[in-house]
Amino acid sequence: HGLSGSWAFDSHGGHAADYVFQLPQRKGAPSDYYICDSRERPQHCALIGGNLQHACADWYDPQMCNFCEDKGDSLVCQVRGWNGYYNKWAKVPIYPRDLLGELYRGEFRDTFARPMWASVELKKDALADVKLLPDYMVGIGPAQKVLKVP
Predict the structure, then answer these.
(1) Mean pLDDT confidence for 85-103
(2) What's the start-to-end Cα distance of the chain, in Å?
């Protein structure tokens, strides 16, 4: 969990969906959904996935909504960040040393580095009214640049 007032702090509570923003796509394609660092004025966002409202919340389809798990009244969704090495959106790992810190250098050297994956639990009914991603957050980013490379 993160600091109070952040998506990580509210990631399993009633306010988790307040941090979700949608980015409408062109030509009638379903919106992409992002989780951001602030409810009102986001500066950083991570991808949850596309068509979250219809393929996941309204009518759960495990093939169309492979980034979320249906929990009845809620969804548990993976959080994905941009991976510059692979040039794609990838699951965000959380390692024990990231959460616990190190008391001394190399404390976790002898442990198997098996990460947990960042996720967020969202109430389905809260996804009916998702805010639009602000214009200042929309632009040509690393994912778009990869598509333009010959």
Answers:
(1) 74
(2) 41
What is the rounded CA–CA span in Å between residue 45 and residue 136?
12
Listed residue (107, 127, 115) closest to 54, CA to CA: 127
Classify residue 28 as left (phi > 0), alpha (psi -120 to 50) or beta.
Answer: left
CB 80 within 8 A of CB 67: yes
| Single pTM value for the model | 0.75
Cα–Cα distance between 3 and 148 in angstroms, integer?
Answer: 38
Cα–Cα nearest to 5, from 33, 47, 42: 42
Distance between CA atoms of residues 38 and 137, nearest Å:
12
Both tokens of 97, joined, read 């040393």
